[in-house]
Write a structure and sequence with these properties.
- The chain is an alpha/beta fold.
- It contains eleven helices and 14 strands.
- The strands form two sheets. It has an eight-stranded mixed sheet with strand order 5-4-3-2-1-12-13-14, sandwiched between helices. The protein has a six-stranded mixed sheet with strand order 8-7-6-9-11-10, with helices on both faces.
- The longest helix has 15 residues.
Length: 282
């Protein structure tokens, strides 16, 4: 029986085929999550977003939501932060130095477990778009101070991860290779969407966080289902036999999962049928 359902956010729970660049939860997905919760299955977010986004979900669904935040840097269960993995101040300084030679136009964003979001260029997109999301309550805090100034204050909490934001998949892949060549032995360099890369602490991932959570709470791999759509979801998809990739995912993501679905609602429907004994497997 599936006891825990773990969902990625952007490109997954927040994906709407009719509006690919939207960030809302469709009525179909919302009703499916509520039905899942009513059946007794625990729902958990696993996202590149900070763990405070769970509070936004709690308002949406009306129940307490656990979280794997910032790709595994934070795990929050019953409102208790169980871990806080991150980069050092020097890591950020070194990345900003390398940014001077970046082969494509990019804006870098630092995020920490306080919910601070700090861009290097506040006069370059997507700062304004993120600031609007902050005003809507999606992000806890947005600084108008550049990253290069922020890191001069050593009393500030270091960032858990750094995100490079570009304007196309082509630019993303160029930037991915650029930072992999320079920092691949120091960070995990991944992407979590078509227009961004992420610099993560080594060996910190959604999958590692999920495995640690399963061990802590006593979940068997066959009692956990998860769903995602991007490179940062692969380790999580490999952690359980009940893993789903979104249909629009890259092939490398689909190959790491056991099932491919169009929506989160479709995956939840399969899980509920399995739990009711209507199918011998998913």
């Amino acid at each position: 029986m599936i006891k825990l359902f773990v969902s990625d956010m952007d490109g997954t729970l927040l994906y709407n085929e009719a509006e690919p660049h939207g960030r809302g939860i469709t009525l179909e997905n919302r009703e499916a999550v509520l039905k899942l919760h009513a059946s007794g299955v625990r729902f958990m977010m696993a996202s590149g977003r900070d763990h405070f986004y769970r509070l936004h979900l709690e308002e949406e669904f009306g129940f307490q939501v656990d979280a794997i935040g910032m790709n595994g840097c934070n795990v929050v269960i019953d409102d208790e932060v169980l871990c806080d993995h991150g980069l050092t101040l020097q890591d950020t300084i070194d990345v900003l130095k390398a940014l001077e030679d970046a082969p494509v136009e990019v804006n870098f964003l630092g995020i920490n477990s306080n919910g601070d979001h700090v861009f290097q260029y506040v006069d370059r997109e997507p700062y304004d778009r993120f600031y609007q999301l902050h005003l809507e309550g999606v992000f806890k805090y947005m600084s108008d101070q550049p990253l290069s100034e922020w890191v001069k204050d050593t009393t500030k909490r270091p960032f858990n991860k750094l995100v490079g934001l570009v304007k196309s998949i082509e630019s993303r892949d160029i930037l991915l290779n650029f930072f992999e060549e320079r920092f691949g032995d120091r960070f995990d360099v991944i992407y979590s969407g078509p227009e961004n890369i992420e610099l993560m602490p080594k060996n910190i991932s959604k999958g590692q966080a999920l495995l640690e959570l399963m061990d802590l709470k006593g979940y068997k791999p066959t009692e956990v289902a998860c769903i995602g759509d991007s490179m940062n979801d692969i380790t999580m998809l490999q952690a359980t036999p009940f893993s789903f990739a979104m249909r629009h995912s890259d092939d490398i993501v689909k190959e790491s999962s056991h099932y491919v679905v169009k929506t989160v609602a479709e995956a939840i429907d399969m899980v509920l049928k399995y739990n009711r004994g209507e199918t011998s497997g998913l």
